[in-house]
Amino acid sequence: MESLKEYQLHLKFWRVILALVVVNILMLLLKYFNLNTYIIIIGFRCHISLILPFVLIFSPDFLPFIKRNFLHPEYKKAFVFLTLILLPILIVSGYLFFTHNIDLGDPDYFYEFGVSSVADYPVYLLWNFPQIVLLFFFLAAVSTTSKYRFLTVFFTVIFLFGFELIFPGHSPFPYSDLGILISCSATVSILINYYPNIYWFCISLFTMLWLPFLAFGSNSKTLVNILYASQYKYWDGFFDVSKVFDPYSVSAYFGFALIIGLTALIFRKKT
Length: 271
Fold this sequence. Notes:
Elements: H1 2-6, H2 13-32, E1 38-41, E2 44-47, H3 48-57, H4 62-71, H5 79-98, E3 102-104, H6 110-119, H7 121-142, H8 149-161, H9 175-194, H10 198-216, H11 221-227, E4 239-241, H12 249-270
Antiparallel strand pairs: 1-2, 3-4
Helix pairs in contact: 2-3, 3-7, 5-10, 5-12, 7-10, 8-9, 9-12, 10-12
């Protein structure tokens, strides 16, 4: 992201490390004592890992860059983002449908949670927009601290959310969740470094999380409360997937999203 250098953010790498250490210590303590890692204020979601890192590195040098991104985003084409959002769910659900491994389910709270979540998508997006904006600026700034921009942002996202795999104890280890984290981190790094558009980044990241979990379900209270509604602890999903494919439906979505992101990246570099 060449324009970042023009604004001379003067962000030292040690500040990024310090921010990650502080966030991880705080989040692990909250998880250890079974406390929420987020708060919801008048509907607005505030996850500590999304908000606190930018707060810890912010300086007045950021203001011109923030203004530039809101008023004149660098990458303005919508095709890549729409493909990234929609094509993976079409591939996964289409494959499951034609192989007879998916049916329309009858989950608890079908109307009050499921149907209302579809209708309230713009509201949920608006509620999550501020914290995703802060994540965008944090990762955009982090990418300036090293010449290995992709790897720097990738590992930063891993360290921001990897704590979710530690507490409470999982048996066996949640390899599927680890795969989702790795795929999502790589996709986010592609968007930050090669398709910098703050509006599409927020829409893409939120929808990439909102869509597959709405379709296939989630037992994560944190995800359900942040992405959908604060009064529910789980969601079974609109679809019933066969036992063979059910553990891999969501991770497959993020895997295909990463493949699409890498394909778009290769194509952009060639052109």
